[in-house]
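Tutorial, part two.
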Amino acid sequence: MLDERLSRPAGQHDRPLIFSTPMKFRLCLSLIAALLPALLHAAPPNVVLILADDLGYGDVGCFNSRTCKTPNLDKLASEGTKFTDFYVAQAVCTASRAALMTGCYPNRVGLAGALNHTSKNGINPDEFLLPEMFKKAGYATAAYGKWHLGTAIEFNPLRHGFDEFFGIPYSNDNSKYHPTMAAEMPPLPLYDGEKIIEHDADQALFTKRFTERATDFIAKNKSKPFFLYVPHVMPHVPIFASPQFKGKSGTGLYADVVAELDWSVGEIMQSLADNGVADNTLVIFFSDNGPFLSYGNHAGSSGPLREGKLTSFDGGMRVPCLMRWPGVIPAGGRQREPIMAIDLLPTLAKLLKVPLPMTPRDGVDVMDVLTVQRGATSPHQALAFYAGDELQAIRSGPWKLHFAHQYLTVNGPPGKDGKPANHANMKPAGMDKSGIEGIASRHGYRVAQEPLALYDLRLDEGEKRNVADVHPDVVERLTKLAEPLSAELGDALKGVKGNAVRAAGKVE
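Running the prediction step on this input gives:
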């Protein structure tokens, strides 16, 4: 090999090793290519993180959407890399966001599931969050959209590292538009900072208003590093599109809503370009979880994946993800290595040279995976798939093992026009049920049973062919990998309480 020849004493060669000019040129190019990411890392990038709500794996053009047109997201993919096996940590709003913000499984920080307007708990003030990391690195920070990590003022984004916040504290169905419990819902508050400025604001204008705030923030902070977080409200039911987009897609309101989200991405990208910071900005786009399938034509598609939101199948936890950072993340790239949203905080912390607290954290540095380095593999020995406090599945490499568990599946034909499946047969008494039965009653699902099942995701991404009997050695190996996770984070399927679980924040 060339490296070996270069290391030999000159006398071992019949003649001195002389490089021709073309060879020198090629070597220089190779060295520049190898050093370029490190050189660019010397100037820390701005970071724009755009999060959709309940957008499905099959709802983005470059992920083979059949109904939604997303030219701006497709352009983002062509200028960056598509991550085909990117996961969130739970298939529900609060838990997914808690994991993103802390770099931990949500069970570790006491926030499995989803909060609502009655919740007294939220993100613990002792947790070190993504915006706090950026503040420590000298960044301007802003969040425009849905927070969903606590309603009380103690949990407000401005108390957790953001300079600016404009948005709602929880999901938009906690309002007069709730599909099955509207009479019980208070007016939906819209915050600017820590102040409520409107109640029941026009939800059709949410995407537009958040986008305008985002582009203004970019212009205002173009001369200094910034972290911009845009957790959109849409396309979580109830769905709304502004007059500019409503009825324009030709394939229904859901596609109109996704088209407006795509427009928002385009506006943000244009603002980065107009302000001269596009080439030194890392743009990340993904969804907080999979689609709310019970809502039919007002919900998205899981594409080839099984089930959707509220389940531990890939349709619930594997989401469309795109990243762009010119010169660092390859243009037109495709990355199949499994990583999770919990990895973003430790990866960015290392990039920015911000030391993290010594508290246990589940995410790891995945920069080699993000930059699609040759031979780079996921540093995770295993990824955990929780639903609430149950460890329902685990993935290691291409293998995914489901432990026997109950799950939610759509109860009959999917619903229409904002109503869940089987809405006509819902009984008010059933709405009082708790746990998985209560969720099923309120949202048009029924409870089904998954046996112990092993899937090879290389050959069966739809999790249809159980090969546990054929590969008992893999079942045994993955079962052992799950044991320390159960011990640390707990597992209601086994009746185990985690020994490394931290408490959520709570107000009286």
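The first strand starts at residue 46 and ends at 52. In part three we will examine how such features are distributed along the chain.
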